[in-house]
Amino acid sequence: MISRGVRIQLLVFLLIAALGISYTGIRYVGLADPVGEVIPGLGLDTDYTVSVDLPRTAGLFENAEVSYRGVAVGRVSSIDLAQRGARATLELERRTPIPDDLTAVVAFRSAAGEQYLDLRPNRRSGPYLEAGSVIPRENTKVPIQTSTVLLNVDELVTSLPKDDLRVALDELDRAFSGTGPELRQLVESSNELIEEADSSLPETVALINDGKTVLDTQRAQESSIRTFATHLESLSGQIRESDPDLRRTLDNGIPAAGELEGLLTDVRPTLPVLLGNLTTVGQIIEMRLPGLRQVFVAYPMVVAGSYSVAPGDGTAHFGLVVNVNEPPPCTKGYEGTDRRYPQNTSEVPANNKARCAEPKDSKIAVRGARNAPSPGMPSGAAGQSGGGAGLGGAGQVDAQGAGPAASGDAPYVAGYDPITGRVIGPNGNTYVMGSMGGQKRVLGKDSWKWLLLGPLAG
Question: pLDDT tens across 339-379, in order?
């Protein structure tokens, strides 16, 4: 008699053995699908069937692996002939959704030639493959046939000239013979370069991304760059054509520079004095610019008309109009001036009050100084002094003179000593042209020029 406890142990052992055998059969032997088809309600049908139309099998076989992104997701259950090639039936796992927009590629697992089917999706989202789906032929790729590869290799080898191939092999042997250490160093250096570039990958990517901004700017300035290149080409061509002249200029430039240096050295003592003296001339010319402008306008017409006087035919064409005392000269205002003969060389004070006293509307000396346009005197230059060249009563008087003498508004030209800054007026008084201020009272709005020209005058 078997006791009750032994029977319970046997039942438990049988139950555990049945569960183990069932799990092994379902998990490893592949009984899940047949059982699931017989009893659908158990949920054991974990695979679904998909068909693939291939132009040829390309070495694909039954039970070959099917991978998706490098992971095995099923197997090839059967391969049958189709109307235009072969149809492979795939059993894929339901737990892995695969997009239906994909490319089925027959690939090699290893160099031994073991083929498998690789599913390469074209998108990441659905719709997905389902039971009964068919992957069309245009979405498949198969490797080149071995016979085609061998035929192409044979054609390549036979197309090479044997003599030239022998020469090429000899040259390659000479080129690389004994260069093993150098080649090894080159490979090692290349590896170091690649590692260094890999460590700087973020900076390289940032440089490439930021370089787009620079390239976009250059593209936006394409027309300007083309124009610049065209002009630069023209300039380069002109320089090339002028190469002899440029060489001649460079050869003669050194002696010319020496001559110029000698000239500057020679005029260094006198040039500042000349510039200082030209300051007074410039002031006089500036005040008489309207008159000079009129001369420059009328002088070309006078020169052009002078050719008609002597046309070159031995005759002279001109007319003489005698207008003695028409209009009469001005004598009013000159009564206090004594007549002097050229033989008299004694120093006599000038009569600063001598001027034409006729009214402006008088017909006497209509072209006299009283009707001439007044020169543009600086502000304050026409004071109650006998100032000259713009010097009014603003000048400083040294111990030799008691001060400016009132002489009306008539300007005069005075001598200027750039070393001492002294100006001697026509009345004999000596004035000092200051260099530390006071120029505005004398030169008016042009006083700032003295700051530049004053040092040159010394």
Answer: 888 898 888 888 888 888 888 888 888 877 777 766 654 43
At 134, phi and psi to the nearest 5? -125, 125
Cα separation, 79 vs 90, whole angstroms: 9
Neighbours of 22 (CB within 10 A): 13
Mean pLDDT of 23-28: 68
Cβ atoms of residues 93 and 47 within 8 Å: yes
Q: Specify the pLDDT at position 27.
A: 62
Write down the H helix ranges in 27-120. Answer: 32-38
Amino acid identity of residue 458, one-letter, is G
The residue among 397, 416, 398 whose CA lies nearest residue 457 is: 416
Q: Of 445, 455, 426, nearest to 283 (Cα)?
A: 445
> Closest by alpha carbon to 112, among 59, 71, 158?
59
Show the CA angle centred on residue 40, arms to residues 37 and 45, nearest 5°.
60
* 89 DSSP β-pair partners: 51, 78
Residues composing the chain: 458
- Report the distance separating Cα 377 and Cα 390, nearest Å: 6
Please name the residue ranges forming H helices in 25-86: 32-38
CA separation for the pair 198, 315 (Å, rounded): 101
pLDDT tens, residue by residue, 82-99: 888 899 999 999 888 999
Q: Which of 98, 88, 86 is nearest to 130 (CA)?
A: 98
User: What are the φ/ψ torsions at residue 437 (nearest 5 degrees)?
Assistant: 135, 165
Name the more confident of 393 and 220. Answer: 220
What is the pLDDT at residue 306? 80
- Return the pLDDT at 380: 36
